[in-house]
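Request: Give me one sample?
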Amino acid sequence: MPTFVFPGKYESLAKIAELVQIATREFGLDSCAAYGVETAVDEACSNIIEHAYGGEDRGEIEFSYEITANSLIITLRDHGKKFKPKKIEKPKKNVPLKNRSDHGLGLYFIHQWMDEVHYDHREGYNILTLIKNKGTMS
């Protein structure tokens, strides 16, 4: 599985999105499911830039994907600050919009758009694995 390395800048998101579009077409996703995958990857990469690196141009984002018979597997790696998913507060979905935080929904939506989301920290890398299975629309 080839790995593509991008500077941790918001302008890199368009190039990463192009690779996601190639992967989702190759995998055979319909446009709705493909859009969900693209949006999930965009959100994850934005989080890497903002939270792992604390701003633009402070590190790199490694992107790779693999297609199996039933799954599209996208892997994002970075050398940023260690991510602690259990410390992320769950969004309050049952409160009026005006009372909600303007942050905190990204991880929630990533889980909604993807079938599986796995995080690991190994050898100084944050590793986020996003999996979309054939036949799922969400």
